[in-house]
Structure formats: structure tokens, C-alpha cells
Design the sequence.
């Protein structure tokens, strides 16, 4: 540890000591901490929420559940679809991991940490090749974010580095989140809605079949099973929809950071950014509630 007690800067009899300079710098650093704290909180919440793994597991499992509601002759087609979706799951996993990695990198910068980006370029290239759901632009957005992280997260904390990451990362991040939301809404939610319709039709056909004897106990059990089956699917639909809401809040929060990046570090920035964090926290809590 280097200790310099009094380095003097003398001009016209004016003396400024290093102790005074250090005090000024320390005060300046403290004044910006609240703003950086809010960025760290947002990044941490976003990283945790974006990595919602239940979503991809449910996307594959839906096809096994659908076998209950379709004749045996269609089970081969469902198995083919399942194999296809298992290959497609790489797209969802890659999108989610990219958002998580980016937010962890942003949080590390805000905290002043040095963090190594773990994904090698070879691993990323392999993952992109397996991501069959993504088009060229979406893959380029993932590559852009990963490149930014490899450049930035190994740099010692500096305010302009954080602003630079937010500036350069905003558009590819928005593209990655949009691609994830497209899969959630157009793929997962739509598939679960189809599953709900098939489940309802299966039990209705059983209970309303003309050759099915009216047996009160059997009918009561069938009605109860129908309600339980539809509730399970509806709960999965709500989970997917709430995950989409989380992604919307992450995208909106980062857009706010981008739009106001030149004010990061100012005293009032943290207070003004806090509502976006609160909205994300509520959306994430709602997602966890429906997942229990």
C-alpha cells in the first residue's frame, strides 16, 4: 500500500494536498452509488427472471400430455413433433442464456467487478447452428451481444464502459427479447391453447357419448378429471403469459437505461429508474406465484 501524506501543488501560494483530492473523489463516487445500485438491482432481477427454465421443459412435455387426448394412430406424428421440438429447444435455451449473460455482465460492471465471459466463440457457433427456430437477424443479435460481453466484462469498472455496453447492447438485446417473446406467444401459448381444447373435447366426448351408460359416479369422476386437466393446462398458459410480461418489463427497463444513459451516475437517476425495477419485480413475483 502506497502512502503519500502531502504532495503539494503550489501556485501563487495555493496548496492542495492529496488528502483533499481523495476526499473530493470519494464524495463524487458516493454521490453516484445510488444510481449504480439501481442498475445492479435491475440487472440481477433480469438475469434471474430471464432464465425461467420451466418454460422450455413444458414446451416439450406438452406433446406427451397430448397423447392422452388423441387416438393412437396420431401418436407417431406426436413423437416426430417431439423430436423436432427437442431440437428447437436449443433456440429457446440460447435466447434465455444470452439475456442472462448480458444482464450478469451489466450487473458486474455496475458493481465494479471483473467477470470472465465463460462462453467461447466455438461454443457459441455450435449453439447457433443448433438454434433452428432463429432467423439470421436473430442469430446476429445473439452474436453481437456475446461479442460485447467478451469485450466489456473483463474491463475494470468505469462509468463510461457501462454506458457503452448499454448503448451498443440495447438494439441486439431488444431483438433477442423480441425473438424469445415470439416463440412464447406464437409457439408455446398457442400449443398450450390447442392442448386445452383437445383435453376438453376428450372428456366431453367421453361424457356425451351416446353409447356411454349414465353412471353417476363415473360421470362425477370424469367431470372432476376434466376440471383438473384444464386447470393444469390453463396454469401453464398463465405461466407462459406471465413470462412474456417479464420479458416485456426487461426490454422496457433496458430501453429506459439506453434512453437516459447519459444521466447514469447522477443523484436523481436511481429514484427515477426505480419504478421500472418495481414493475419488473412484480412481474417476476407473479411468474413465480403461478409456477408453484
Sequence:
Amino acid at each position: 500500500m502506497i502512502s503519500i501524506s502531502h504532495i503539494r501543488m503550489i501556485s501563487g501560494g495555493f496548496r492542495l494536498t492529496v488528502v483533499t483530492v481523495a476526499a473530493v473523489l470519494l464524495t463524487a463516487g458516493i454521490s453516484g452509488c445510488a444510481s449504480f445500485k439501481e442498475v445492479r438491482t435491475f440487472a440481477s432481477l433480469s438475469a434471474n427472471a430471464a432464465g425461467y427454465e420451466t418454460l422450455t421443459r413444458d414446451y416439450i412435455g406438452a406433446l406427451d400430455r397430448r397423447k392422452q387426448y388423441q387416438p393412437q394412430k396420431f401418436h407417431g406424428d406426436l413423437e416426430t413433433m417431439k423430436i423436432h421440438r427437442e431440437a428447437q429447444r436449443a433456440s429457446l435455451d440460447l435466447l434465455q442464456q444470452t439475456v442472462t449473460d448480458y444482464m450478469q455482465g451489466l450487473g458486474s460492471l455496475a458493481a465494479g467487478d471483473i467477470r470472465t465471459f465463460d462462453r467461447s466463440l466455438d461454443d457459441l457457433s455450435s449453439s447457433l447452428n443448433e438454434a433452428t427456430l432463429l432467423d439470421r437477424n436473430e442469430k446476429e443479435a445473439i452474436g453481437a451481444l456475446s461479442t460485447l460481453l467478451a469485450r466489456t466484462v473483463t474491463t475494470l469498472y468505469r462509468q463510461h464502459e457501462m454506458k457503452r455496453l448499454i448503448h451498443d447492447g440495447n438494439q441486439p438485446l431488444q431483438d433477442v427479447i423480441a425473438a424469445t417473446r415470439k416463440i412464447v406467444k406464437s409457439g408455446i401459448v398457442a400449443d398450450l391453447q390447442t392442448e386445452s381444447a383437445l383435453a376438453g373435447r376428450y372428456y366431453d366426448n367421453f361424457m356425451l357419448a351416446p353409447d356411454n351408460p349414465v353412471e353417476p359416479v363415473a360421470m362425477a369422476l370424469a367431470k372432476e378429471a376434466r376440471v383438473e386437466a384444464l386447470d393444469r393446462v390453463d396454469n401453464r398458459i398463465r405461466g407462459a403469459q406471465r413470462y412474456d410480461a417479464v420479458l416485456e418489463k426487461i426490454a422496457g427497463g433496458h430501453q429506459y437505461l439506453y434512453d437516459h444513459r447519459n444521466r447514469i451516475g447522477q443523484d436523481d437517476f436511481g429514484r427515477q429508474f426505480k419504478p421500472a425495477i418495481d414493475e419488473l419485480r412484480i412481474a417476476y413475483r407473479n411468474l413465480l406465484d403461478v409456477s408453484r
Notes: The radius of gyration is 26 Å.
